[in-house]
Amino acid sequence: MKFLILIFAVTLWAQQPARPPVNPLLAGNPYVSPPEVKGGPVPRLPDGKPDLQGAWSQRTAGNSMSMFSVERTEGHRKTNIPATRGVITDPSDGVIPYQPWARQKQIDLSENHMTEESDAHCFLGGVPHAMYTPFGMRILQPPGQVVMTWEFMHAYRVIPLSDRAHIDPKIKLWMGDSRGHWEGDTLVIDVTNQLGRTWLDQSANFHSDAIHVVERITPIDSNNLSYQATIEDPKVYTRPWTIQFFYSRILDADFEHLEFACIEGEVDMKKH
């Protein structure tokens, strides 16, 4: 009898209209590229500094998930990376100012070595890559620090609000070494000591262990943040360059980070 009921239920399910595929990259997806919702005045901590606490998701114009490509691209058929104008604001052409040898390496990586992409191995993404990964970011502001956590790769950053020196330059970390301070309402974060193993996106845009990033996070209102990062790496680029995009507050009161099951070595990347 139970078997007959199961067959009947499966038959009914099969006769339902097929659901259209869900495209997680569509603009407006609240956990990938949410809509802009105007907010009120910027909330403040007791010391008068902006209160950035809460859950946020990156919002990019013309690039539904900027982890695909930070620079302008016509797309990449081999990897199904879509055409995008990217998030580079300087230089104005939206293209990373690679040294000639580095551009050739980027092309070779994208054509022949995509299995080296750091996310594919479940590695931490580094900075600024972690700042535009999907599924939401949460900000906390305990005294003297800013803490950021992500569902993606279970990444986190603990940023001291301090002028103490960075750690020994010989020490290299996946997420680097961050120091923060306030310039008016803008949180400025200086990031050094990163590994050269991560990529900036899934288009094989890369850097070396000499990368230096200066981030600027500015609240626009209670629901929106501006994010800007200037990236320099004298080993790879001809000059510093800048990206900018925006965050919207995740207004879902039930939002929470979920388990992100991605473990290094869980798949054969050459066959994946």
Indicate the low-confidence ranges by residue numbers.
Answer: 2-28
Large-scale geometry: globular
Q: Please write the string of helix (H) and strand (E) elements.
A: HEEHEEEEEEEE
How many strands, what sense, and barrel or not for the largest sheet?
Answer: 10 strands, antiparallel
User: What class would the helix/strand composition place it in?
Assistant: mainly beta
Instruction: Kindly estimate the percentage of residues that lie in beta strands according to DSSP.
Output: 15-25%
The separation of the N and C termini measures: 42 Å
The overall strand count is: 10
Tally of separate domains: 1
Calculate Rg over CA atoms. 21 Å
Helix content: under 10%
Would you mind describing this structure in some detail?
The chain is mainly β. The protein has one domain (54-249). It contains two helices and ten strands. It has helices at residues 2-15, 100-112; strands at residues 54-59, 88-90, 137-140, 145-150, 156-160, 177-183, 186-192, 212-221, 224-232, 241-249. Strands 1, 2, 3, 4, 5, 6, 7, 8, 9 and 10 form a ten-stranded antiparallel sheet that branches. It is globular, with a radius of gyration of 21 Å. The termini are far apart. Mean pLDDT is 85; it is low at 2-28.
What topology does this entry show?
Layout: H1 2-15, E1 54-59, E2 88-90, H2 100-112, E3 137-140, E4 145-150, E5 156-160, E6 177-183, E7 186-192, E8 212-221, E9 224-232, E10 241-249
Antiparallel strand pairs: 1-3, 1-10, 2-10, 3-4, 4-5, 6-7, 7-8, 8-9, 9-10
